[in-house]
Write a structure and sequence with these properties.
Structural class: mainly alpha
Strand content: under 5%
Distance between the termini: 35 Å
Helix content: 55-70%
Largest sheet: none
Shape: elongated
Amino acid sequence: MSNKNVNPNAKKALEEMKLEIANEICVEANNKYGSNNTSYENSQLGGRVVGFMSKRLVKMSQQALLKQYNSKNDI
């Protein structure tokens, strides 16, 4: 499995999603390099953000699949 983005705009969209989620869970996006945090704290915060991103991406995929399935069965 490749880590390459299928669409070049996907990287920007994922970065925006990451910042949006970080703001939702009160992680300071301005502290980009974590200079005020320990490496352990940064890894914990990063893990939370990635976890929320994964959940959101799964939910978006499920909704897209359901929409596709429902449109096929409406015929």
